[in-house]
Amino acid sequence: MKWYFAIDEAGSLGDTGEDAKTAVRSAAALGQLTPHLLYYGARNGFTAWMQAHGVTVIDAAPAFLDTIHATQAAGIYEAHSIGHWLRAVIPAIEQTDEFILYTDCDVIFLNPVNWSAIRPRVLAAAPEFKKDNWNYFNAGVMVVNVPALRVSYPAFESLIRERMNDPADYHNYDDQFAFNEAYRGHWDRLNPALNWKPYWGFNAAAGLLHFHGPKLAALASIAAGDWHADNQTAIQLGKMADAHLDSYIAWAETLGDRLQRSDFARALAFSSLASTLIRYRKTKSFQSIDSSFMNFCMF
């Protein structure tokens, strides 16, 4: 099956680019997926690395990029990343396969999955914070019915443009909200094991691990006491790490062992993280951590 992931030039130069390389190596180790990268920006060393590792790199941009630029210039919308919006171009790019897999860059493929057996009406996705909260879905892993998405795309794009022009949505409107709003009631449930989050606990049967929430660099910073919780997102990431510390330690230890053949540098990073988190756990008291924000419902 074709696997699509997406990044822009700015993202390729930082931690997200390193996450994407780990994702590619882990997918290659299983040998089930044909990787395709949707890329926005100037080609660079990152894209050369991707091509050298068998990834088809596709230059892409959202069809509504003009609206993003215009609304940002007018001060009524803020796009945190063009790369996040690239998943919306899949129905225009993919012209041969009926079903494809899309993931964010911060995933690690763990076990073989019969992805081709998943055939959603439009898309299949799993919950976000709570694995039993099907109120809305996490758009970081989706099996997509490309023809169905293509048929619905004109209305989807119109809705996106309308929302971006609404000043009330300045901070809250993003690609995930867009997909959930447009396809509410039209998406199928994906087994949560195929979009497993570290804070759900250790799961040896997980098909892939999605570092939704604090990622490797953030976890290392939190454990080292260098985390600057100076905004709501940073505060929540810190709470997620503290509230699920045992799970993060278990995953860091496992990945430190598991990735040694396919991604030795990342394996060392995870092993180091496990040790740092264990030391951090000894210095903290976690009796009352408010993680109620993880009960969020979009609708």
Overview of the structural elements:
This protein is an alpha/beta fold. It folds into two domains: 194 residues, Spore Coat Polysaccharide Biosynthesis Protein SpsA, Chain A (Alpha-Beta Complex); 83 residues, no CATH class. Helix content is 42%, strand content 15%. The strands form two sheets. Strands 3-2-1-4-7-6-8 form a seven-stranded mixed beta sheet, sandwiched between helices. Helix 9 packs parallel to helix 12 and helix 11 packs antiparallel against helix 12.
Q: What is the total tally of β strands?
A: 9
Q: What's the CATH H-level superfamily name of the largest domain?
A: Spore Coat Polysaccharide Biosynthesis Protein SpsA, Chain A
- Could you tell me the radius of gyration in angstroms? 19 Å
The top level CATH class name of the largest domain: Alpha Beta
Strand order of the largest sheet: 3-2-1-4-7-6-8
Cα(first) to Cα(last) distance is 32 Å
What letter string, H or E per element, gives the SSE order? EHHEHEHHHEEEEHHEEHHHH
Measured by DSSP, the beta-strand proportion falls in 5-15%
Q: Which fold name corresponds to the CATH topology of the largest domain?
A: Spore Coat Polysaccharide Biosynthesis Protein SpsA, Chain A
User: What low-confidence regions span 5 or more consecutive residues with pLDDT below 50?
Assistant: none
Helix content: 40-55%
